[in-house]
Amino acid sequence: MLGVIVSEVALSVLVYDLTGSPLLSALAFALGFLPYVVGGTLLAGVADRFPARRVLVGCDLVCAGCVAVMALPGTGIGALLALRCCLAVVAPVFSGTRMATLADVLGGGDLFVLGRSLLRIVAQSALLVGYGLGGLLLTVLSPRHALLITVGTFLCSALLLRLGTRGRPARARGTDAPGDARAGVRRLFADRRVRVLLLLFWLPAMFSVVPEALAAPYADALGAGSAGLGLLMCALPVGTVLGELYAGARLRPAARERIAQPLVCLTLLPYLGYLLRPGIVASLLLLLAAGAGSAYTLGLDQRFVRAVPEELRGRAMTVLSAGLMTVQGVGMALAGVAAEAAGVRATVAGAGALGVVSGCALALAYRATESRDGADRHMTGR
How confident is the model at residue 26 (pLDDT cuts 50, 70, 90)? Predict the structure, then answer.
């Protein structure tokens, strides 16, 4: 993850150096989100059809090769953007396979929930460190040389996975035709509980990224400078880490499941505070509170694992990961459009209001689904 984040910073700078275009520089960053949906649908079956270690090592080697070509002096802007898309297509296959393997290693119970939470904490920490590290490296290295560091991180990851994990058989043998990964995805979406759970993960995430997408103009409006911008960018990840640490260490599994639905309704409520025109300190506190509310994901994780058949677990995690990244990219793009018309504060507050309404609606839908399934099981005697 550190390598990926360093590559995002370096690639954005490299594209700007080559073109002088802020739009293309931003597009290089956005392409890290949007192609996820391609890998999450067309390649989702890979996570279950092949042994997990082979998939994980293969993904790392493909990514190392793509970044190595990016670092070559003759690679032009079109090739750079195309290779960036390739990384984004492979990424959900890797993350989905990793999460499904985590469930194999830790079981489908509370240990899996805590393990998944720990990986999210590592991811948020890598985000905080990676942007600072990327900026620091670019003061002493050219962007192409910085990309070589990313090649090294992918190769190290592949080596760690090959030597540090146990070989496990493929999860699903012959359940789908080799070219029909979409069949398993259709099975997932045919289950109403899985559909609602996916939306419970995705919709709050789409609205939660709005303050990050608009951090630069908001910091400028506050007169907070680059230091204030850095603090605003860090506040949500720090809140997320604190919330997940507390929920994982202090709450029992039953308590985490109980608070999941109330938290998904309330986690974006602090964004409404932007209507009060808060200063930098109050804004940071609002973002910290919203980040801490994302601990609802611990309660949803266990429900999601229970709802998904084991033979589809890999592609379910791949679809979940791909959807998360895609909706965040869409959320960032829509935030920019809305801010042009309504201003930054109104856009963030509107995202909070929409997040609260959608969270409440989905929580009610999930409760109704659980009640209906429980009644069906009672009627059939199962």
Answer: low
Q: What percent of the chain has pLDDT over 70?
A: 87
Phi/psi of residue 330, each to 5°?
A: -65, -40
Length of the chain: 382
CATH topology (fold) of 1-166: Growth Hormone; Chain: A; (1.20.1250)
* Total-model pTM: 0.77
Q: Which CATH number fits domain 191-382: 1.20.1250.20, 1.20.950.20, 1.20.1420.30, 2.40.50.140?
A: 1.20.1250.20
Extents of the domains making up the chain: 1-166, 191-382
Q: Cβ neighbours of residue 82 under 8 Å, at least 6 residues apart?
A: none
d(CA 123, CA 1): 7
Nearest to 135 by CA among 12, 21, 49: 12
Q: What is the model's pLDDT at position 271?
A: 97
Write the DSSP assignment of 241-304 as a string of letters.
Answer: HHHHHHHHHHS-HHHHHHHHHHHHHHTTGGGGGGGG---HHHHHHHHHHHHHHTTHHHHHHHHH
